[in-house]
Design goal:
α1 packs parallel to α2. The chain is of the alpha/beta class and about 110 residues long. About 10% of the residues have low confidence. The longest helix is centred in the middle third of the chain and has 17 residues. The chain has one domain. A 3-stranded parallel beta sheet has the order 1-2-3, covered by helices on one side. The chain is globular and about 40 Å long. The protein has 2 helices and 3 strands, in the order βαβαβ. The protein starts with 7 loop residues before the first strand and ends with a strand. β2, α2 and β3 form a beta-alpha-beta unit.
């Protein structure tokens, strides 16, 4: 018997902060990112996702720096990219591309 595929948890690192905290060991850039930098970063995240091994995912976590420093429309692009590349798993265990499930989002 083949065991059912366990859903992935996806992590997207947001490297932007307004300041570097003394206790922080994350790779961050302590400058407020302008729109062009945010767009370049999101484009790079989407390219990285497109090149990753595909699987079912049920969680998308934004962390690292301060995700709220990135425009909501750009974060929405990441969410949509993840949905299209990693068929969202239903919490009941299965998935169906014709009926998209929601990711649990953590910021």
């Amino acid at each position: 018997m083949i065991e059912a595929e366990r859903p992935l948890g996806l992590y997207v690192h947001i490297p932007f902060c307004e300041a570097k905290c003394a206790y922080c060991h994350f790779a961050i850039d302590p400058r407020r990112p302008g729109r062009p930098r945010q767009e370049r970063y999101v484009a790079a995240v989407l390219r990285e996702m497109a090149g990753a091994e595909k699987g079912l995912a049920d969680t998308l976590y934004f962390g690292g720096g301060t995700p709220s420093l990135v425009g909501a429309d750009l974060l929405a692009r990441v969410v949509e990219g993840a949905r299209s590349l990693f068929a969202a798993a239903r919490h009941g265990g299965g998935h169906d591309r014709g009926q998209p499930a929601l990711f649990q989002l953590f910021v």
